[in-house]
Amino acid sequence: MFDRFFGNEDDSDANSEADVEVQTNAGAWGTNVNVGSGDPSGVLDGDSWFDTHTFDVDSAESSTGTRSQPRPRPDVSPRDSPVGSYPRGTFAFPDSKPFMQALETRGKNGAHERVETVYVLTGQSPTTPTELFGLDKPEYYESATRTSVTTFEGKVARRVAASYPDGETPNVVARFHTHPGGTTTPSDVDVKSAESVKESYRDAFGTDEFEFFHGIHAYVDQSGVPSVEERHDATALSGGVSWRGEQYRHELALFGPRFRNSRDVVIADGE
Length: 271
Prior knowledge:
30% strand; 14 strands; globular; three-stranded mixed beta sheet; 271 residues; disordered N terminus; alpha/beta
């Protein structure tokens, strides 16, 4: 199934400076949402504060492209946050190796080929994610290679919004795309598409009263094999975080809605 749009091994020597293109509001669909505490792979079973979401795709019909009108933000009671309070605009990574391992799995496109992909984190705290949306199904993409990805971003955003009860919205949305073998520097295409990406989530939720982050997840082959203790031990950087996995060194960078400014990042105690 993935052969119809994923790149092949000939892409392995392509330019490592990755681009992302976005196609918004592409297609209507039916939704079945499955939500489980922890991670289906068992990685996060010990961290009950974190939820993962998977979807069953029902249809892909044509869309009129009509945008929803903003609705008043409801009075939502935030769920318990796994970390402390931080100033709005800060992105707080829980000090949790299972959490970083889950991000690594999503960044590597699940069990599929090593190409650019997209995933989304949300949460009821404006600084801390508690929901992971793994988006590696072909229905979310027009194409994906080592150096580019074209997403149906409106469809992706509506999928995320559909997991919330009617009228409820998160307080933080962080949309990541990956740069396999690349850097965390946004490309010109990243910057040009940034505003339309955020608008997709604004339209999907019917409000823009949430903290929005753009994220780039880069990973490269690393020398040596880190010990078990060294793996998935996150280190805060200026505007990001890094860690070593089994095979790759990972680095995440967080930006504002237009990719024009880096955001403050902290590693916070999970207890």
